[in-house]
Specification:
Order of helices and strands: EHEHEHEEHEEEHHEEEHHHH
Number of strands: 11
Number of helices: 10
Strand content: 15-25%
Structural class: alpha/beta
Strand order of the largest sheet: 4-3-2-5-8-11-9
Helix content: 25-40%
Largest sheet: 7 strands, mixed
């Protein structure tokens, strides 16, 4: 009897060669370019990436799986045994690479938040440490980060990602393509770094603090959420927002990320004008 593979760290291995080949065919890289595969598992994507002739590095936290990849693709793949979340995303081998991953579901949020850090903000210009990323995500995660019409976002994570990346779902992958079989479908998603910020929030630390507050209370209207934000009074809030005061009757997912950024910018400008000290 063949020995069954196990997923010791909660990873669902991609077991369908058809979907593996389709996914890699959608990755925009040329022969000889740097690619980093995060969590290669049993090598389903690795096999097809090697066929593309890229300079491939695989980062695998499980020593057993890393040894299998090293033996199977000897001389063709550089293998690093490491937890990717402990690595500097803007240092080799990740820096300057296209990242490809059938991402273990249990690290999805942490990985995506770390990915935000790869895009450095210089004024309104963005400098990315990566060329781009192609990541398999659970459908429910994709629904949370993809903007709805008029750039309305469903989560703080979605706002930050869309500010910095163009996000494009490329391929839906059914549960039967994985082993063990997950309960939900997955989507192979392309993240392309933007050259400029989608919107200017003024102060980025204040913006993140504002997003934390409004999305933690997403069912409440923003008037109730923003009152008291950094000691803002009702009068101060309305004075800061001016003609944007209509947004106070909305919930955060009912306004665009551009409007959220403008709200943050106006609150920041109000603090500066009034010489109000605030703590992030």
């Amino acid at each position: 009897m063949a020995k069954k593979s196990r997923a010791p760290l909660g990873q669902n291995f991609l077991a369908d060669s058809y979907y593996a080949s389709r996914m890699v065919s959608l990755v925009k890289v040329r022969e000889g370019e740097k690619v980093v595969e995060v969590g290669p598992g049993e090598g389903s994507l690795t096999r097809w990436l090697v066929k593309r002739g890229v300079r491939l590095t695989a980062i695998e936290v499980d020593p057993r799986l890393a040894a299998t990849i090293r033996e199977r693709f000897a001389g063709k793949v550089e293998v690093k045994v490491a937890d990717v979340l402990d690595m500097d995303f803007c240092e080799p081998p990740l820096a300057g690479s296209t990242v490809v991953s059938n991402l273990p579901f249990y690290i999805t949020s942490s990985f995506l938040y770390r990915m935000i850090e790869t895009v450095k903000i210089e004024g309104k210009v963005l400098r990315s440490c990566w060329r781009g990323a192609y990541i398999t995500l659970q459908r429910e995660v994709v629904e949370k980060i993809l903007p709805r019409e008029e750039w309305r976002c469903f989560s703080r994570l979605g706002v930050h990602l869309n500010m910095r990346f163009e996000i494009e779902p490329l391929l839906e992958i059914p549960p039967d393509a994985f082993r063990p079989r997950p309960q939900v479908s997955s989507v192979f998603v392309r993240f392309t770094p933007r050259e400029t910020l989608l919107a200017d929030p003024g102060d980025h630390a204040l913006f993140d603090s504002l997003l934390r507050r409004v999305y933690a209370r997403r069912r409440r209207k923003m008037r109730n959420t923003l009152l008291g934000f950094r000691s803002l009074s009702k009068e101060g809030l309305e004075r800061a927002l001016g003609e944007l005061s209509w947004t106070l009757q909305k919930r955060p997912e009912e306004v665009s990320l551009m409007v959220l950024a403008e709200i943050s910018k106006r609150i920041y400008d109000h603090f500066e004008e009034q010489k109000i000290k605030y703590r992030i």
